[in-house]
Amino acid sequence: METAVGTTAGQQTPRGRTRPGHARTVPWHWALALAGCGAVVAAALAASPATGTPVPVHGTPKALGASAAPDPAKAQLPLDCGPFPVATAISMSADLGDGRPGTVVAAHCAAENGTPPDAVYLLGFGPGDRPVVLATLLSERENLTVGRLALRSDGVITGHAQGYSSDDVPRFRPDISLDLTWTRKGGGWERSQTAAPVSQT
Asked: Please, which residues bridge with residue 194 across strands?
């Protein structure tokens, strides 16, 4: 059973979103995106921010209210946006099964034209309850636009993303569509992806 707990924050369709001029798609980006199936996210997402010690996962994953979890607007997200601000596309607040509140957030550079790619981060509370990035689940270098994030009852994070196979593909008609899952493995998360039908809306 999947609980859709993602919330949009100023989310726009691929047609209406923008991207900085320097963030052009290059072929190796797509090779990275399509070859990323089964890639292990190289960060200890279940680690305590203070000690780095893996936290045992034996609780029940559940959605949380936004006020009980880290606020993406107060976090320093590692996006290089130059003069443009960072925009949150989707955020999902939850206890992922380790008893600690967290926020999964998709964000991008709010540029004035083009289609900016999203990055997906897991946030936790750091010293002084300041929101900190625990790990990057999806890099903006993969040139994907995230349209959904959700939490399943078994603690698996799911998402959907679309992208473009080349610069020749119109920005309003993405031709790559992926269903993404992040499964806890050891002290981190393992990502897998499968091709999905491309939405033409």
From this structure: 179
C-alpha distances in angstroms, 48 versus 45, 62, 120, 122? Answer: 8, 19, 20, 13
Per-residue exposure over 121-159, b if at least 16 CB sit within 10 Å of its own CB, e if not? bbbbbeeeeebebbbbbbbbebbbbbbbbbbeeebbbbb
What number of residues does the chain have?
201
Distance in angstroms (rounded) separating the CA atoms of residues 29 and 143: 7
- Residue 11 DSSP SS3: coil
- Give residues with Cβ within 8 angstroms of 101, minimum separation 6: 64, 68, 69, 70, 93, 94, 95, 124, 125
**The pLDDT value given to residue 20:** 40
Give the three-class secondary structure for 179.
strand
Write phi, then psi, for 91 (nearest 5 degrees): -135, 145
pLDDT along the chain (201 residues), means of 10: 46 36 35 35 34 54 95 95 94 94 97 88 96 95 95 95 92 93 90 89 52
| Beta strand residue intervals within 85-156, DSSP E | 86-95, 101-109, 119-125, 131-138, 144-152
Q: For residues 118 and 88, is the Cβ–Cβ distance under 8 A?
A: no
Q: What's the token pair of residue 136?
A: 């990057």
